[in-house]
Automatic annotation (TrEMBL):
PANTHER family: N-ACETYLGLUCOSAMINE-INDUCED PROTEIN 1 (PTHR35020). InterPro entries: DUF3605. GO terms for biological process: N-acetylglucosamine metabolic process. It holds the Pfam family DUF3605. It comes from Candida metapsilosis. It comes from the Eukaryota. This is N-acetylglucosamine-induced protein 1.
Length: 214
């Protein structure tokens, strides 16, 4: 098993640099340092030698989910990604579908930055109009509402949180949807209360507002 060799020399990414990368959507710039890359490479090869995929490891050991827990939207169409009449197709809606955990192999970030992943049993759909497998503006609004409720309403400053979902070609685990959340100078107590929970998932009222169904 091989992975692309992307290594950042010198100092770690600062919060200012991280803000630039995320806000400009130049996600391909993120990298690990030499030590982090070696650990990640070795970990993936150790799994491969045991016949275990990275997806299998994440599901079983980190999320404690089963492969058959993972599902795709049923009724969604390119013209209607989400509908409150189809709650099974609403991402970040069902508590049982979502879990927040540390990123086991974060990028080379300064010590003040915590790298989390929010995982979803329900596939977060790609934007059919994106050539690189990005997500739609509506999906981004939905994710931002979830992050508002989960982090910002719990005391995290809007200036101290960033998020992104890697485009398809950048994802190391493609079959289980997840978004990356980066927190700067986060309160440890707040962080510990959120880890391994679903956070504050969206309600039908949230969706009705986002979808202009009122």
């Amino acid at each position: 098993m091989t992975i692309e060799r992307k290594v950042k020399a010198g100092d770690p990414f600062t919060w200012t640099q991280i803000q630039y990368i995320v806000k400009s959507n130049k996600l391909e710039l993120f990298a690990r340092n030499e030590e982090q890359f070696h650990k990640y490479y070795q970990f993936k090869n150790d799994l491969s030698s045991q016949g275990i995929t990275l997806t299998d490891y994440v599901l079983k050991e980190e999320l404690e989910w089963k492969q058959n827990d993972i599902r795709s939207q049923v009724a969604a169409t390119p013209d209607q990604e989400y509908s409150t009449s189809q709650p099974q197709d609403l991402i970040l809606f069902n508590d049982d579908d979502v879990k927040i955990i540390y990123n086991k192999f974060p990028y080379y970030l300064e010590d003040s930055v915590v790298h989390l992943c929010v995982w979803s049993k329900l596939t977060i759909p790609n934007d059919v109009n994106s050539p690189v497998g990005d997500i739609s503006p509506l999906t981004k609004q939905i994710i931002e509402r979830y992050l508002q409720k989960t982090f910002i309403d719990k005391g995290v400053s809007p200036d101290d949180i960033l998020w992104f979902r890697n485009w398809s070609k950048l994802q190391s685990v493609r079959s289980v949807s997840h978004i990356h959340v980066l927190l700067h100078n986060v309160n440890e107590g707040t962080l510990q209360k959120l880890l391994k929970t679903s956070g504050n998932t969206l309600t039908l009222e949230d969706y009705k507002e986002l979808l202009n169904e009122r």
